[in-house]
């Protein structure tokens, strides 16, 4: 019996390990660039605000426009993944957001940037979930989070360090967007070139060609699959916690602005933000490793416990950082230690719990859909976080844009922004921690139902996943059997 299990495990391992590792690295690189793009705008909020005379709420509205478009376009990623392999979808997303980033540099719009970002994220997450087995999925998502944090550090540092400079009369913040757009285009070309020359991607493309269906039929099948995913109880819980849990992280986009108002220079702020991202990277890796270990020992509850510990710890740690530390004069060591502790403890959930559980509660062929729908629902509320922080700071806590650049005025504004940030962190995190409790009831049942559905599909041999993580079906009655492929 053990020999049979080992044989099955060997069969499930992807062939062409070198090619699989290379595609994983490209997926990580794509996410790093996406995170760099998302981090660049908040890093230069102060300069954009000064150039355009924009208040914090107006700056939050810039991010809101991009986030709303991004949330609306997430389902497009799931649909495209049904017609193309995932690396092609990722490359397309890279091209689109690179072009949109160029428009931001020209002060045209930030909203179009959300289209490219929306295409990439679900396809990347689904590809990573398909590339590893369940026993090491947390570590794989941990490294994905590390790649994202590297991109965030790069984008934040690029913005903060270039903001006070200029070249040929062009402000530094505009140059930063231009450089990032060029880098994104290079990544897109690299991914597309590799996907075109990859044997597995070519096989997937050939499979798609031979089983192509009318667009209307594929849209109907996608709608049926989306409805089936939305009926999974654990998915509903994950969306509910995501609505609250992603809000604080979006609100933290004002951290760099707050540090500068406290009195730190551009260089010091860049160093502190880099330290925070290093801490969140280590936390993601630590969370992924602990999640895999806890899942092996406590199959039904291990990942959930870690999520509650992580989200619960954010409340007191954020209070120390934003409310307890003295701001006059600012102490880099104390702020750095508080940022490191917050980043290390509050960043477990995506790798330890969210990513692995979403991969387990639906069959493999539905993973792009589940990640796309999850991101859609979460991003709707999270997209309002910067605007909410800006409104709280101005209307409730006394942030005064007309106060000028005097030191006393900036310190008062820093205190107002800190209180607004803590409100936007503490309340959602408490709710997030409580909502995770429902997974103790739903997760074991949904995981087993998805495993049974996958086994039934494998036994019939009618509609597994395409090579290289693409989705699709080999039968004409796939849509009619959708209810059998997902837990009820």
Series of secondary-structure elements, N-terminal to C-terminal: HHHHHHHEEHHHHHHHHHHHHHH
The CATH architecture category equals Up-down Bundle
Q: How far is the N terminus from the C terminus?
A: 31 Å
Radius of gyration: 23 Å
Q: CATH topology, which one?
A: Growth Hormone, Chain: A
CATH-defined superfamily: MFS general substrate transporter like domains
Question: What low-confidence regions span 5 or more consecutive residues with pLDDT below 50?
Answer: 1-15, 204-210, 463-485
State the secondary-structure class: mainly alpha
- Identify the CATH class: Mainly Alpha
How many structurally independent domains? 1
Strand content: under 5%
Q: Report the sheet with the most strands, covering strand number, pairing sense and barrel closure.
A: 2 strands, antiparallel
The strand line-up of the biggest sheet is 1-2
Rounded mean pLDDT is 78
* E-strand count: 2
Shape: globular
Q: How helix-rich are the residues, as a percent range?
A: over 70%
Query: Helical stretch count?
Result: 21
Region (Disordered): 458-488
Subcellular location: Membrane
Family: Belongs to the major facilitator superfamily. Spinster (TC 2.A.1.49) family.
Signal peptide: 1-38
What report would you give on this structure?
The protein is mainly α and 488 residues long. The protein has one domain (20-471, 481-485): Growth Hormone, Chain: A (Up-down Bundle). It is built from 21 helices and 2 strands. The chain has a two-stranded antiparallel ribbon with strand order 1-2. Strand 1 and strand 2 (170-171) form a beta hairpin. Helix 2 (17-43) runs parallel beside helix 7 (137-162), helix 11 (233-251) packs antiparallel against helix 19 and helix 11 packs across helix 20 (439-460). The radius of gyration is 23 Å and the shape is globular. Residues 1-15, 204-210 and 463-485 have low confidence and may be disordered. GO terms for molecular function: transmembrane transporter activity. This is Major facilitator superfamily (MFS) profile domain-containing protein. It is a multi-pass membrane protein. It is found in: Membrane.
């Amino acid at each position: 019996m053990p020999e049979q299990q080992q044989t099955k495990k060997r069969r499930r391992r992807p062939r062409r390990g070198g090619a699989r590792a290379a595609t994983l690295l490209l997926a990580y690189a794509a996410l790093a660039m996406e995170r760099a793009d998302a981090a660049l705008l908040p890093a230069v909020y102060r300069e954009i605000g000064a150039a355009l005379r924009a208040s914090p709420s107006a700056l939050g509205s810039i991010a809101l426009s991009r986030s709303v478009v991004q949330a609306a376009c997430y389902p497009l990623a799931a649909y495209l993944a049904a017609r193309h392999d995932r690396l092609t979808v990722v490359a397309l997303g890279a091209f689109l957001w690179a072009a949109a980033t160029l428009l931001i540099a020209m002060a045209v719009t930030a909203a179009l940037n959300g289209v490219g970002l929306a295409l990439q994220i679900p396809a990347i997450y689904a590809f990573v979930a398909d590339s590893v087995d369940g026993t090491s999925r947390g570590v794989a998502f941990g490294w994905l989070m590390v790649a994202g944090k590297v991109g965030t550090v790069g984008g934040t540092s690029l913005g903060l360090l270039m903001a006070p400079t200029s070249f040929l009369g062009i402000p530094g913040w505009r140059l930063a967007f231009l450089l990032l757009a060029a880098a994104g285009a290079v990544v897109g070309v690299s991914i597309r070139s590799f996907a075109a020359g990859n044997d597995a991607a070519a096989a997937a493309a050939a499979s798609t060609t031979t089983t192509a269906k009318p667009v209307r039929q594929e849209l109907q099948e996608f709608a049926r699959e989306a409805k089936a995913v939305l009926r999974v109880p654990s998915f509903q819980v994950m969306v509910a916690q995501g609505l609250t849990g992603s809000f604080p992280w979006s609100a933290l986009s004002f951290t760099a602005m707050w540090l500068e108002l406290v009195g730190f220079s551009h260089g010091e702020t860049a160093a502190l933000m880099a330290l925070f991202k290093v801490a969140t990277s280590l936390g993601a890796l630590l969370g992924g490793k602990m999640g895999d270990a806890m899942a092996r020992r406590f199959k039904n509850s291990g990942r959930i416990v870690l999520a509650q510990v992580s989200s619960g710890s954010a409340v007191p740690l954020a209070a120390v950082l934003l409310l307890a530390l003295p701001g006059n004069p600012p102490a880099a060591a104390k702020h750095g230690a508080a940022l490191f502790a917050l980043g290390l403890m509050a960043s477990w959930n995506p790798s330890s719990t969210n990513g692995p559980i979403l991969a387990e509660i639906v069959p493999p062929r539905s993973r792009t859909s589940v990640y796309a729908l999850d991101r859609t629902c979460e991003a709707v509320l999270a997209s309002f976080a910067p605007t909410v922080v800006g409104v709280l700071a101005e209307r409730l806590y006394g942030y005064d844009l007309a106060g000028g650049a005097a030191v006393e005025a900036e310190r008062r504004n820093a205190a107002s922004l800190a209180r607004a940030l803590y409100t936007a962190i503490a309340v959602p995190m408490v709710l997030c921690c409580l909502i995770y409790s429902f997974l103790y009831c739903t997760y074991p049942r949904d995981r087993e139902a998805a495993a049974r559905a996958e086994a039934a599909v494998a036994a019939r041999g009618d509609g597994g996943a395409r090579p290289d993580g693409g989705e699709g079906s080999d039968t004409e009655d796939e849509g009619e059997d959708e209810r059998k492929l997902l837990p009820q």
